[in-house]
Design a protein that fits this description.
By secondary structure, the protein is an alpha+beta fold. The strands form three sheets. It has a 19-stranded mixed beta sheet that branches. It has a three-stranded mixed beta sheet with strand order 21-24-23. A two-stranded antiparallel ribbon has the order 20-22. Helix 2 crosses helix 5 (about 90-115), helix 3 (about 40-50) packs across helix 5 and helix 4 (about 55-75) packs antiparallel against helix 5. Helix content is about 30%, strand content about 30%. The protein has helices spanning about 10-15, 25-35, 40-50, 55-75, 90-115, 305-310, 325-335, 360-370; strands at about 130-135, 135-140, 140-145, 150-155, 160, 165-170, 175-180, 185-190, 195-200, 205-210, 215-225, 235-240, 245, 250-255, 260-270, 270-275, 280-285, 285-290, 295-300, 315, 335-340, 350-355, 370-375, 380-385. It folds into three domains: about 10-115, no CATH class; about 125-130 and about 320-385, Phage tail protein beta-alpha-beta fold (3-Layer(bab) Sandwich), CATH 3.55.50.30; about 135-310, Jelly Rolls (Sandwich), CATH 2.60.120. The protein is globular, with a radius of gyration of 24 Å. It has eight helices and 24 strands.
Length: about 400
């Protein structure tokens, strides 16, 4: 396959990247991809991206990756189609989807690691991979390293097992259970009552066996997103830094890292009570309770909860974050020490990015959009400087 601009595959690829492909063209592209030479396909994609290298396109590509499967299925087999038009077999659809997924991830890869126009030194940054599914669980002093290929652990009433049913260990009565993610780690948990927890990097969740039967009490350090099953007879409570969150059934996020000056509790759905000493506030959806650790006071503000909890879906959302807060997020995910060479840049960041990218991609984003330069040393220090105008 040639990469000439008149080439049919090139034209269809370019239309796909810009979300301008009709159903009939998508099927044609499937057929051409199956016959294409892989190296020439990569060349064609690189050529297209060289023409259209903008941060907006990068955001668009990441969103396309997330929505790709349902989008393709809808185009191949739209609800309004008559049975006579549904000619593709299940096997053909599967092949087509797999082929297109390969294209999009190839596009993302070439964008992230093949950009020759960036001013960022990527020699070290390009080797630093993002975090992943990593955690340990401690049951009465015995440590278990969780399977990185699993990603979900079910914390049953008397046993711990992975989402696919594989048993990890059994638990006894009145035992303490602690789940801990390292820097650069994350893990999803299913609690004994059916509630779900997404544990972010550098976090720790502790509970006692009996959870879901005679209590629903947890302790948290770090950050977690909770989707709680409703049970009016057994309130769900989370203790963090002397503050207590109590819910019946709701979805919310708690950010309580030791290095953060505030404890932030964000409600996405339902309602919950946040209490500290003699203060007690009731949150509504898209509200956030902010506990000032020094003043020991709680205040509330309106927020976009979807933006704050985007991390659990694999997205960095920097809207409203200043440089310091953003760098702390990055440091936890890529296991870095942040060093400011000069005065900390006084700027609010914005934009979204996949948490699945190498560090070099984030540094390109930072430099291209905010004139902030990041350089990584061999001992994983990220040195931040403001580019001169």
């Amino acid at each position: 396959m040639a990469s000439d601009k008149n080439d049919k595959t090139y034209t269809l690829l370019r239309a796909f990247i810009n979300d301008q492909l009709e159903r009939s063209q998508l099927e044609e592209l499937f057929a051409l991809i199956e016959e294409a030479d892989e190296e020439q396909l990569h060349i064609a994609i690189r050529s297209i991206l060289d023409e259209e290298q903008t941060p907006e396109n990068l955001d668009f590509i990441h969103e396309r990756v997330e929505l790709l499967q349902e989008d393709i299925l809808a185009k191949i087999n739209p609800p309004q189609s008559s049975p006579s038009k549904r000619k593709l077999s299940s096997l053909q659809i599967a092949i087509g989807i797999a082929a297109m997924l390969t294209i999009v991830f190839t596009i993302t890869y070439l964008w992230q690691f093949g950009n020759e126009h960036s001013g960022t030194d990527q020699s070290i940054a390009s080797t630093i991979m993002p975090g992943g599914n990593r955690a340990t669980i401690t049951v009465n002093g015995q440590d278990f390293e969780l399977d990185t290929d699993q990603g979900e652990l079910v914390l049953g009433a008397d046993s711990l097992f992975y989402g696919d049913g594989q048993l990890l260990t059994t638990t006894g009565v009145q035992q303490s259970v602690q789940v801990k993610t390292p820097l650069g780690g994350q893990y999803q948990l299913m609690l004994a009552d059916g509630s779900q927890v997404w544990l972010n990097a550098g976090s720790e969740l502790t509970y006692n066996t009996g959870f879901g039967t005679d209590n629903r009490a947890l302790r948290l350090e770090g950050e977690a997103y909770f989707d709680v099953v409703k049970n009016p007879d057994l309130p769900f409570t989370v203790e963090i830094n002397g503050q207590q969150v109590e819910v019946l059934g709701t979805a919310f996020n708690i950010n309580a890292y030791a290095e953060e000056p505030m404890v932030k509790t964000t409600l996405q759905r339902g309602s919950l009570a946040v209490a500290n000493n003699d203060q007690k506030l009731i949150l509504k959806p898209n509200q956030q309770a902010i506990l000032d650790k020094d003043a020991k006071k709680i205040a509330t503000r309106d927020v976009n909860a979807a933006s704050i909890v985007a991390w659990k879906d694999g997205i960095f959302d920097f809207h409203g974050m200043d440089v310091e807060e953003s760098m702390r997020v990055i440091a936890r995910w890529y296991q870095l020490d942040i060093v400011y060479k000069e005065k900390i840049p006084s700027v609010l960041l914005g934009g979204k990015m996949s948490r699945g990218v190498r560090l070099s991609t984030f540094l390109e984003f930072l430099e291209a959009n905010f004139d902030i330069h990041g350089e990584v040393t061999a001992d994983r220090k990220l040195i931040i400087t403001r580019k001169s105008k």
